[in-house]
Design a protein that fits this description.
about 475 residues, alpha+beta, eight-stranded antiparallel β-sheet, 9 helices, 19 strands
């Protein structure tokens, strides 16, 4: 026997009542409508509920937000409610006869309209009377429907205006982006052209410089060749005279000596060549994109160095301080490393050197030896050392060691690292020119910035090395 077959008539009627009862008024459905979430309510009950709770509209049973309050009339549910309402009196009559068993309808939750009294809905919607609407309630409902309809029309119109505006903005956005792309392409075409012209100008200057230097070298070659011939001839004459009797040709020998002494006054000199700075337009602006905030690491500083409080400046103190001789500290070389270590990416920083006559900046492997004053292995050090000699400056780069002479001082040096491409370069920031670019290599392990103010000499070279801040325009 199934579950429903075991139920009494009263229980079945109670089940019917529960299924055909409005969740809001707890009475049989009257003009039921079904929302988009599948729940049904009396039309008037639902509108009253929405009126009390305003927006956003939601289902009173499951509280789901109803973006489009579309109500579907449920005529089948209304007919079922009417049928059960008619069956109620018959069931009450049959269950109330003498000898009948089970619960009576009076004991169940199925009551007559009179027994139930006024439903909660009747207090909310005056004028509503089971199965039909009074004239007043009907007018009220129509007003409510018209008000809701007007609001929906207004919201629809506002939504349409916004939608139209958004579509116009989409078109405008595409047009603006297209125009900006054209401007960017046009500007870069101009920039490329300007850079190409600047490149050609620099190449022409280098070619002109090469011609002038080659002419100087050729003229020097001619002079030195003639001088070498004269010296060879004079040496031959003197050697011949030394093997002969000087007494027989005293005057000739004296003349040979005088000519030899005159040749000695003609000292051979190497040709001095003017080297053009390798200027690159827009170089610094491009490099500043990779600006890295570098600070000094006190744990690595030699005991003779004094660091500023902000760890941005270092100078030679002249005397050794009492500091722990830890493994990471330089003990002989007047050096200090940067606190940052690099294993990837592009990095650029600048160092102001003032009027120093000797200094060193660059990069080194984090594993570089900190002890002793011996030359470091070439593969451990990538540095630039500048030394003033007279009016000229001698620039030396390590790994491998190379040198060149320039007249222009370097007041501010830029250091650039591109780890992935194995590239390190030094720049003269003041002259916006390249000093030296190392051949590409493959880095292994971490690299760290390196700084050395070098030793002070007779009251000179006392200025500090200062890491510049690239956040300001300097």
């Amino acid at each position: 026997m199934s579950f429903f077959e075991k139920m009494s008539t009263a229980d079945l009627m109670e089940t019917f009542r529960e299924e055909l009862t409005c969740f809001i008024c707890l009475d049989y459905f009257n003009s039921p409508v079904t929302t988009e979430c599948g729940h049904s309510f009396c039309l008037v009950c639902l509108l009253r509920s929405w009126e009390e709770h305003s927006t956003p509209l939601s289902c009173p049973e499951c509280w789901r937000a109803l973006e489009t309050p579309y109500l579907q009339p449920n005529e089948r549910l209304e007919r079922l409610a009417a049928i059960v309402r008619q069956l109620r009196s018959q069931v009450l009559h049959s269950e109330g006869e003498p000898g009948s068993s089970g619960k009576t309808l009076a004991d169940s939750k199925v009551f007559s309209d009179e027994e139930q009294g006024a439903s909660p809905f009747s207090t909310q919607c005056p004028g509503v009377n089971r199965g039909y609407l009074s004239h007043e309630a009907e007018e009220h409902l129509k007003e409510k429907l018209q008000e809701t309809l007007n609001r929906l029309h207004k919201q629809k119109k506002e939504t349409q205006v916004i939608l139209t505006h958004e579509k116009e903005r989409m078109i405008l956005c595409k047009e603006e982006t297209k125009a900006c792309k054209q401007v960017v392409v046009s500007e870069y075409v101009k920039m490329h052209q300007l850079l190409k012209e600047e490149e050609q100008l620099q190449l022409l200057l280098l070619e002109e410089e090469e011609r002038e230097n080659l002419k100087k070298l050729r003229d020097s070659e001619i002079v030195l060749t003639q001088q070498l011939r004269s010296l060879s001839k004079m040496i031959g004459q003197m050697e011949s005279t030394c093997h002969n009797s000087i007494s027989k040709s005293f005057e000739d020998v004296r003349g040979t000596v005088e000519r030899g002494e005159a040749l000695l006054l003609q000292c051979p000199e190497a040709t001095t060549m003017e080297l053009t700075l390798c200027r690159v337009t827009g170089m610094r602006e491009m490099l500043r994109k990779f600006s890295t905030d570098v600070t000094l690491d006190p744990a690595t500083a030699s005991a003779c160095l004094i660091l500023s409080e902000d760890l941005k400046s270092v100078r030679h103190g002249g005397i050794r301080q009492q500091l722990p001789d830890s493994p990471e500290r330089f003990d002989q070389c007047a050096m200090v490393l940067g606190a940052q270590s690099f294993t990837c990416g592009r990095h650029y920083w600048e160092v102001a050197v003032g009027s120093k006559t000797e200094w060193e900046v660059g990069l080194c492997k984090d594993s570089v030896s900190r002890k002793g004053n011996l030359p470091k292995p070439p593969e451990d050090l990538f540095s630039l050392t500048v030394l003033k000699i007279g009016d000229n400056y001698s620039l030396w780069v390590s790994s491998p060691l190379k040198g060149q002479h320039v007249r222009e001082p370097v007041h501010k040096a830029g250091v650039f690292l591109d780890y992935e491409s194995g590239h390190i370069a030094f720049y003269n920031v003041t002259e916006a020119s390249l000093i030296y670019s190392f051949p590409p290599t493959s880095f292994q392990g971490a690299l760290r910035p390196l700084f050395s103010p070098c030793l002070p000499k007779e009251g000179t070279n006392t200025d500090p090395l200062t890491i510049c801040s690239l956040t300001s325009h300097v």
